[in-house]
Amino acid sequence: MALPNPLVTSSKDRLGGTPVFSGTRVPVQTLFDYLEAGDPLSEFLRQFPGVTREHAVALIQLARGKVLAESAADVSHAA
Predict the structure, then answer these.
(1) How many CB atoms lie within 10 A of CB 30?
(2) Radius of gyration (Cα) for the chain, nearest Å?
(3) 4-20 pLDDT, tens per residue?
(4) Which of 30, 31, 43, 67 has its CA 20 to 30 A from that of 50?
(5) Which of 32, 15, 11, 24 is nearest to 50 (CA)?
(6) Residue 65: beta bridge partners?
(7) pLDDT (tens digit, 9 = 90+) per residue, 31-75?
């Protein structure tokens, strides 16, 4: 199954502009809330079957990439 592009969408007409997994009404924040609470990814996926494992993992990887890029930029500016 191909991943949606973009991975995340938001619209003022859908949940007041809250970022959601594309093609769903599942807020992205919900995934991070589950993980922060110590719940495994499998529990999030069980509760929100409209989100595929591949979609959730791709979003986590996207977030990881952004954090690492910002961190690297902060280090290079401090040097």
Answers:
(1) 16
(2) 14
(3) 999 999 999 999 999 99
(4) 67
(5) 24
(6) none
(7) 999 999 999 999 999 999 999 999 999 999 999 999 999 877 766
